[in-house]
Amino acid sequence: MLKKILLTAIIIYIPNSLHFPTSLGLPGLNVFNLLFLGLLFVYFTSKSEKTTKSPLSGNLKFYYFVSFIALLISIPVTSHLADNVTIFKNIVVYSSLYFLVYSICDSEEDIEYYIKVVYFVVFLMCVEIIREKLSFGLGSSKRVAGAFGQDESSANYAGVYLAIFMPLLLKNYLYKCEKFTRPIFTLGIFFMGVFSIFYTYSRQSYLSLLVTSTLNIAKKHKVLLVMLVILLFNASLWLPDTVLDRIQDTQVENADGEEQLDDSSESRFVIWQAAYDHLIVEHPFGIGLNEFKTRIDPYMPEWIKARDAHNSFVLITTEAGAIGVIAFILLLIRMYYIGGVIKKHSYDNNVKMLGEGYQLTVIAVVLGNIYSSTFYSPEIMGNFWILSALIHKYYLLSQQKQRNETELSQTS
Asked: Is the pLDDT assigned to residue 253 strictly greater than 60?
């Protein structure tokens, strides 16, 4: 019971952390740390088997290693070592939820429950965003971010978060899986998510939603694919005007009447080019963890206010060097590969659905990190690590169940 309470609480808390107190009165003690310590207690006192190696173990440890090296590189040059240590701590602690959840979840029924909780949290996020948008008015161009905050970057984060969890919702409906929740419910949450993503006005989230939804229905649902294509070609007839304006504003006319990217989009290419010319080339082993904003500043023109890399691949290459981005890419490839293994070797439609949905979820993670740096964000990635563990362990348990049934039938 303690395990179920703690894990339910942490799934709900992570993306909604801004709604809770940041401190509990003692230095270093907050709600997340308390819940995490509780999960550690459950792990060390659990009687479940801990001998099975988790599928991402090697890749995550390699990623921790290169992140630690990047932290060490930052020490001689940094003026904010405490912040760098905090970033490293977040990288390790939030992704280590994968190991904890994988170890302590030992029944299919429990995992089905926790996946429902993940769905429920997405539903809550959509409700908050929709309520916020309705308070502004549907015709307003003000961006909404729900539990992620109030500023423009928060809206991007909210869009990326929802885009990551949309594929599994749609896949659950398309497979008509009843074990996790009724398909009609997941379809309803999916459309709530689509509506919510629209009004975050996050263009990268639009792309992620479009790509994953197209891939979701392309293989077995040709009629739906044709309908989607028709809808896209007639987008101006049904998309809200503010959403169309947001998409069309990607390209603007300059003083000479020539088409060019808007300042937000153009700034990213300027930042990436400066990072390559002045940081990556000159520091092939990396400039150190959390040093990008400080080191890129001298090379930025005045019209660019943001100092974020706006791309996790660029950020990690700059701060951790070539070996850092290799570790990052190998981790992403490994996750996608595991989804393929689950899809290919599952005899149960529910498990196959999880494998296919997980592959699309990984694609959404990749797309969410091309135009912004969200991989370090605990609020976005925390529940992704938990969901990864749930899906991977569910597959393991289903395979063990199948072997047991085969052995039983052979002996009888």
From this structure: no
